[in-house]
């Protein structure tokens, strides 16, 4: 990984850690897949920290530019999946 994760200086240390865990889950979905329940738990925590759709989109865009991974696509797949399913990102 040769990039940094997007975050806000307004967040607490724990919030930064939790947002990084969410973006790491996006990476995991692309690299080997992730269980839907685990991913959705991280996504719900991310949304507690980033409730604004516009800020969410901004962070997704920053992360995709840096990593090549689409957060939006993984979240969309996770929302459409059923419990017990594995979420897999598309190829980079």
Automatic annotation (TrEMBL):
<dbReference type="InterPro" id="IPR007920">
    <property type="entry name" value="UPF0223"/>
</dbReference>
<dbReference type="Pfam" id="PF05256">
    <property type="entry name" value="UPF0223"/>
</dbReference>
<dbReference type="InterPro" id="IPR023324">
    <property type="entry name" value="BH2638-like_sf"/>
</dbReference>
<protein>
    <recommendedName>
        <fullName>UPF0223 protein PNH38_03615</fullName>
    </recommendedName>
</protein>
<comment type="similarity">
    <text>Belongs to the UPF0223 family.</text>
</comment>
């Amino acid at each position: 990984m040769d990039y940094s994760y997007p975050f806000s200086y307004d967040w607490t240390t724990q919030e930064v850690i939790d947002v990084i865990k969410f973006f790491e889950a996006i990476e995991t979905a692309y690299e080997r897949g992730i269980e839907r329940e685990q991913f959705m738990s991280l996504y719900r925590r991310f949304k507690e920290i980033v409730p604004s759709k516009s800020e969410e989109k901004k962070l997704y865009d920053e992360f995709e530019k840096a990593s090549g991974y689409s957060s939006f696509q993984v979240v969309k797949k996770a929302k459409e999946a059923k419990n017990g399913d594995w979420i897999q990102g598309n190829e980079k």
